[in-house]
Amino acid sequence: MLKNSALLTAALAAFHTVNINGFYLPGVAPRSFHKEDVVELKVNKLTSIHDEYPIEYYRLPFCQPDKGVSMVNENLGEFLSGDRIENSPYKIKMQKDMYCEQVCISHLGRVEARGVSPSKMVRAIKRNYHDNWIIDNLPSASKLEDEHDSYVKYSHGFPIGFVANAEDAEEGSKKPEDLRAYINNHVNIELEYHEVDGAVPGTKEYRIVRFIVEPFSIKHDFVATFTDDDDAENYLDEGNLDEGRKVAKINNPIASCDASVTATEKKHTTYQMAVHSPNGPQPASGKVLFTYDVKWTENENVSWASRWDIYLSMAETGVPNKVHWLGIINSLVIVFVLTATIAVVLIRNLRCDLTNKLLAAENKLLTEEHHYKLLTDEECNEDLVKSGWKLVHADVFRPPSN
């Protein structure tokens, strides 16, 4: 006994002296990449803090993969949580920066106007739906810089768009009919990695430790390169898929999308570029060109085991998610009704047995003074009369005479 106590004391002392900063997900092993290995970006369902119901990603007119949409194998946890993980058209390679890569031209629907039913994309934007992308089992996070504090805030996913006043609306108006939806058609995909020793001596491999998405709304003035689907298919058949295909020619582009700039002088899209773009933000209607940047940064301070730290601290430093009170109340009401129903059934069926057994176990002398008495068979049978099925509970096993 003393030996066990000593071992327990030593274990507790060791636990308190060790500073644990890592976080590990059971069943998820580290994955290492070589330079220019393909890094797959997967998409998940769209979620909102205002609506209870998620939307499948490709239910909205987003760009689809060239070889078609396919479900990605899910583990048990993803299946139980209702995830809908699918492939995407975004092409990413390890340590390869990309600038204003074109994804596709998509038609988002009718122009938003007063008295006109909004499109699916507009409704989703106004309900504050968010994208949830995944790279190397790491969910995307959006970065928000706080003007009042010195730190950077992170939140889960990133918004598919935003709402602002229409051009013909009064300044500062908050009327629903004066608000217009704008799509975030450009994203900066910021990936951080750290270097590890490779399986072969003398080689280096890399592990992804952070996945940040910074969305922008940029109205590109473009002319489609392909006039029909046949031209696009021929272009892909010629082996141009991995070369960064150009589905459109952009007129008067922002600096990061300027094709005349050499590769060594290229710069990633910034907030200032997006704000001062010549055509302003992109409305969530009509034909829209989707583009993206990829920026790789080495981070020696974050290990693979601690790459989930920013997600665990989002409740403190990020944008808090609103609680779905309607769902909670609905669940509580259902639990209460079911519990009450089961309790009534049990009390009616077991009242006689429980009362008699309890009194007999306590060996009490029951007198009229204590107002106690054992329930008689007649009293117990009163419940049988009230429950008709009990009158024939034995007869159901008796074969009929005819």
Automatic annotation (TrEMBL):
UniProt-listed InterPro entries: EMP70
Cellular component per GO, a single term: cytoplasm
Topology term for the membrane: Multi-pass membrane protein
Residue spans crossing the bilayer: 323-347
Protein location: Membrane
Alphabetical GO biological process terms: protein localization to membrane
Keywords tagged on the record: Membrane, Signal, Transmembrane, Transmembrane helix
Extent of the signal sequence: none
Predominant cellular place of this UniProt entry's protein: membrane
Family annotation (PANTHER family): TRANSMEMBRANE 9 SUPERFAMILY MEMBER 2, TRANSMEMBRANE 9 SUPERFAMILY PROTEIN
Family statement drawn from the similarity comment of this UniProt entry: Belongs to the nonaspanin (TM9SF) (TC 9.A.2) family.
Name the record gives this protein: Transmembrane 9 superfamily member
Organism: Chaetoceros debilis
